[in-house]
Structures are given as structure tokens and as C-alpha cells.
Amino acid sequence: MSDPLLQMSGIVKAFPGVRALDGVDLEVRAGEVHCLLGQNGAGKSTLIKVLSGAHQPDEGEIRWQGEEIRLTTPLSAMKHGIATIYQELDLVDGLTVAENIYLGHELSSAGFAHRGETQKQAAALLARLGHSEISPRRELGTLSAAGKQVVSMARALSHDVKLIIMDEPSAVLDQEEVARLFKVIRDLQSEGVAVVYISHRLEEIRQVGDRVTVLKDGRTVATGLPARDTPTRELTRLMTGRDIEYVFPPRVSRDGDGTVVLSVENLASGRAFSGVDFEVRAGEIVGLAGLVGSGRSEILETIYGARRATAGTVTVDGKQLRNGRVRAAVGAGVGLCPEERKSQGLLLDEAVYRNVSLATMGRFSRGGFINRGSEKRAASEHVKSLDVRPTGVERAVRTLSGGNQQKVVLARWLLRECRVLLLDEPTRGVDVGARSEIYALVRRLADEGVAVVLVSSEVPEVLGLADRVLVLREGVVVHTGPADDIDEHRVLDLVMEGSAA
Amino acid sequence: MSDQTPASPPAGATATTPPADEHRRIEAAAAEEGETRSGFVRFMSSPFGRNLGLILALLVLCAVGAFTAGDRFVDTDNMVTILRFASIIGVVSIGMTFVIIGGGIDLSVGAIVALSSVWATTLATQTMAEDTHWLLMVFVACAVGVGCGLVNGILIAYGGMAPFIATLAMFAAARGLAEIISEKRTQLVDVRGLVDTINGEFLGIPVLVWIFAAVSTIGWVLLNRTTFGRRTIAVGGNATAARLAGIAVKRHTVLLYVVLGLACGIAGIMLTARTGTGSGTHGQLYELDAIAAVVIGGTLLTGGRGTIVGTIIGVLIFTTLTNVFTLNNLDSSTQAVAKGAIIVIAVLLQQRVSVRSADSS
After folding, report:
1. Which chain A residues touch B226 with a CB distance below 8 Å?
2. Residues near B194 by beta carbon (within 8 Å), at least 6 away in sequence
3. Per residue in A10-47, pLDDT tens?
4. What's this model's pTM, rounded to 2 decimal places?
């Protein structure tokens, strides 16, 4: 083989305030399954978006079959033969399977669709994928997630595809479906189609992958590793070893001297998680570590009342909270900094002070009339103490960077003087420089007597910031203990393979 | 911020200098970009700037009126006439502004106006005959409006219906009910107190205009100075964030439709007094006029942003347009075409401005 199918070198992509990709190299050969590994925030999704034409790189070169190309739109990527199967499948539920497969390049003449021909060809594609049981006439919405994924792949194949990117395809599949997916991947491979496969599950990578590229902090740290026999320890070391060490505030030793503020007993919610028990004392930070889908965010949502518990209780300061009632939780002094800050936490076009006072408006009003003077004063006090930049509480929140937006959400609960603070991914979208500030803030809040529960997909963050750690795997707590007693490798082993490696 | 830069990495850090300076540089650059983006665009996309643009549009329209109709347009009586015509649809539009900022829509306002006018006049003509005090009619009209709003709000907030559908049902049902009650007849109001008071004048200005002014003022205060207004913006701007901040989103949604229902009740009694009749055909197409006025006034149809002043000007633009056309003896079909054009132009301009300001942030 002379030229590799795809060669990306020195890819850089910066967003305001953060360099998502900072010199990524990736080489994919025809007919191989190339796995992409990296922690959250390592740059995998951005890299995929560059490769699928959704983002334009600021620097770097993409060579396709030896020739330099520019992928300016998703369509141009498609024309070169690069197809992406996204986590959230981009299909239309109301159309049939066949119509979905040929969506955007319908077989038609003069605007009239050739339905018979479309169905015949769709059936052929589905058969090629080993799923001839899916009828091309079926309405897409009636298929399972696995079925939709197959349709998505058939759609990729309906173009003359040479490279398929699969972003965590197994996340929505059960074991049997994963096995079928792997068979499809091998068939594709034997036809010379290359696959870029992204997954957090090492066992899958070993089963289906040929070579591995590891990303970390927007850079390629290792490439071309053999997927089958690179030791787990080596892979996790590559994923975790950092150039940038975050500065975590020192822990104050307070051996159980605080009173129990939050207590969660035997909590369960549907299939998301079950049997979760823990207590958080005043001044303590408890961290929840686990993969996406392990139930960590759902636990926070259930404590907060944004999701109904199907069993168990949540108690704050000795009083049991009403199940499924956010207002009960807020009234009892619980605050949440949600995972999706922009869509769940902020009014982006509103002024900073209005976002800060959102949960405390009543305190500044009399008979419904807001005293804006005292509202603004109180908000600015907290905004100043959190060092939100640029200063000025009249500014729309949209104009702030991720880190400063997060501080605005924190300030909201600070102003409310909450007893329990639930932090879901507090540093997502926050660039490295601002992270240490957020960490220091969280610790300061704890020192002031707040009970903090922290969820993060970044293991070092949980270990560095929390006093105690709960490790979750598929909705079950598999480990509980002081953060000092466990290291990153062990946590990754627990969440990825469920065994001590 | 520089004094906070860690001077040296703590023990155990493997590392190189945190790229904190770089991050600050990028952040500063981003902030600066925000500052230096076209001052004009920034100004025009601020609520004040948007309203100024609307006032300019209104002035242009007035200039056209003065040029084409001369003294017949530039005349105190004519100005009062414009305001008088603006008052009833204006009251409905103020209520509509709240619902739209709160992320909803209401297609049933015209029907609610008709129902409340019919209900109030039926009460006066049948039940208590001549003894009916006109204030009782006012109360009944408002109560009917509130009742309809309550039904709309509950269906939407607790029944989970799309606002478009729930109020479409009310649109059909309320007008139908109005026709049943009135037996499809126009009911004359013989309670002189109502007509004399509400269709009268106070300090030389029609009471209808005073009512519009009062409702506008209350609406402005409610939106800009109370927790109710703040919550309206929060619910419309980001319902999830509002809910997670502990705001009772469903209850608030119901209240929004109740406020609009009340406005419709007030408009219903105003219309009854002005025409001296109650009729199931009152308030035809009010929903479209009100929504158009609100949208021209710069309120986002997706919710979360809008102003009372904008709505008032939006109403005035439409009424003035009608006036200018009538003075020039142009028929209502031509007016309708012009109205359509104005809606399109206003919304396109606003989108331009808001897209540009969103891009640069």
C-alpha cells in the first residue's frame, strides 16, 4: 500500500477561549478499523466534526488517497466517500427505511421518486449489512435504536463510501446487537471500507479494532498502536498522563465532624440506576465517577427532583424531600449546576445579575415588585467575589466565556445560601486556565459548610477535588471510599472493564 | 487577574506552565471583539435602539400621511381618532405580548372578545333588565375573559397541549358559544351608563384611549419591575433553566393566559361600549392583528424577549396605516397588502440585526 487512505496532520481548531484541537495527527489505511481513544474533552468529537466537514480546521492538512483536500461542507465529505454515523442519529422518524436511506439523493426523475427501485436498492443494502429482516417499507420510527443504526449505515453505503466514522455506536446497543454490529464492521472491512471507531469500552476495541490512536488535551499522544495487544495500563497511562496538571485546592481534614446534610437511601430511578446509598456532611465534597450512561447525572437529577425516583428517599437536614419536585428541593436548600449549562442553566440573552438572582427573586421583591437596586448590589457582590470576567453585571451572559458562565450559575446558588450543591460537569467547556479557579471556588463553598456532590467524566477532577468517591458502572455503585485511596487507573479499570486489571 | 496566576506549579505537577496566559489572551480578544463590533448594530439591537427604529418607521408613515392627505391627517381630531381605533386592539396586544414573551401564542383572542361582549350584553338585556349597573357588565366581561384564559392555560400547561392547538380549539368554541348565547343576533346595549362612560371623554380624550394608556402602563410595570415579568422572560427564554432554578413554570404559564384573557375581557367591554352592541362577530381577525403588532414591536415569536413599548408602536403603525389609507380613499384590500408587506419588512430587518449581534457574541 502506497498512500494511506486518510492522513491528517497538524490539525488545529480553536474556539473562543479554548483550543479543542492542538496538533492532531491521524492516519487511516484502507480496510482497517482504526480506534480513537481519549477522555472527554480530549478532542475526539471536534476531530470527527472536522473530518465530516462540519468544522473547518484553523491549521493542518488533510490528505485523502494522497491528495490534499478541503472538506468545506458535510456534503463535500460525503462526496469524497466519508460518512459519519452520529450518536444522535440524524434520521427522520416519519419516513420509511428506504426513504431515509436515500434522503437527500433520492432516486427520481423530474421530481418523481422511483419508489420501487428505491426499495429494491435499499433492500440490497440492508442485505449486504446482514439485516435483510428490516423491511425497506417500514416506518423508521418503529425500529429500535439498533435498527436505526443499521439504517444509518445503509445510508452511508448508499453513497460510494470508503470511510465510515462511528461515534460510540455501541452506546445504544445490547450485547447481541453489538456482536452483530461487529460482524457488519468486518464485512465492510473485507470490502475495503475503513472504519474510524470511537468507544470508551476497551473490550470492544480489542475485539474489533486493528490500530489505536490516543488523543489527549487536543493532541495525538500515540498512534498506530496494535489494538489487540497494547496493555490496558499502557492505554490508560497514555489517556491520563498530562502536560497540564490542574491545581486542586488542598483538602481540609475533617474526619466526620460535620453534620450530615444530605442523605440518599436506596435511591433508584427506572433502569438508570438503583440501590444508591450515600451521605454528604457539611463541608464535604463527594464525587461520582463513571462513564456517560452509568447513571451519574441521573442520580443528581433525581436528588434534585427533576427526575422521579422509583425507590428510596432523599433527605436534607433531616427532612425528606418530596419525590419529583424541583421546588421542594430548592426550598430545602439544594442547588444544581446542570450538565448542559447553556440549555439548562442560563438565560443567555439576559443580564448577568438577572441570571444570578433567578432563584432568589423573592428576596428582593415586595408585593411582586423587584427592588432592582438591592438585587443588583447583592448579585454584584457575588459576581465580584467569584471574579467573573469581564466585570459588569448588565452584560448579557452570552458574551462570557464558558468558565465565567459557570461562575454565574455558581453565584446563583451562592446568593441563595444553599445547603447542598449538586455539580454536574462543572468544568465542561471551561478551558484549562479557568478550571483551577472553579476548583478553588467549589472548595471554598465546602469550607463554608455546603455539602457538595460532584459529577464529572474527568476522573482526575473527581479524584483531585472530592473528599470521597463513588464509582459507578451501569447504574450500580461499584466502589466507595476516600479519594486518596484510589488512583485514576484503578477508576478507569473499574468503569471500563468492571474488573481489577 | 494576573495576581492569581499560580507562580509555580505545586509539588507533583508534571508540568509545563499552564497556558493560562494564553487563555486570558484569547478571552480578552473575544471580549474585545464583543466591544468593538459595529456600534450601530449593537445600538440597534438593544431594546432602546429597536424601539427607536420603530418610532422612525412610524414617523415616516406620518410624513406620508401628512404629504398625501395634508390637513385632514395633521389634525388633532384625526390623531385622537387614530388612538381611539388603536385602543381596543392595543389592549389585546399588550396581553398578547406577555404570552408571546412567555413562549406561547394565543389564536383565540378575537373569539374571547366576542364571547365576553355577548355575555355582558346578554346579562344586561335579559337577566336584570334596566337595573343592571354598567360596572357589573364590566365585571362579567372580565370574568369571562379570565375564565377562557384559565381554560387555555390549564390545557397548555397541565394538559400538555401545544398552545397553537389549545387556543385554536378555544378560537372555534368561544365564538360558537357567543353565537349560541346571542342566537346569532346583534344585541343592543340599553345600559346608557356603559356607553356614556366608556365611550365618553375624560379631559377631552376618549376614555377608550385612557384605558389603553392605563393597560399599557400596568403592562410595562408588570413586565419590567415585577417578579412576574422576570419569570415570564425566564420561562420563555429557557423553560428548563427556569424550572431548574425553582420557578413554577406550569403555574406561571397558566397565569400568562389568564392575563391575556383579562385583557380580552377589557377589550370586549370596550368594543361593546364603542359599538353599543354585543355580537358574536366582534373581534374578527384580532388574533392576527395582535400577533402582527407584537412581532413588529420586536418581540421574539420564540419567546424570552420583547417590549411593551414596541408592541404599542406596532399597534400605532397599523392603525396609522389604516387611517392614511382611508383618508386617501384606498380600499381595505390595498391596506391588507400593505400590512403584509410591513410585517415581512419589519421581521426581516429585526432578524438581520439579531443574527449579527448573536454572531459577534
Report:
1. 365, 368-370
2. B124, B134, B137, B138, B269, B272, B273
3. 889 887 666 788 888 999 998 899 998 887 667 888 88
4. 0.75
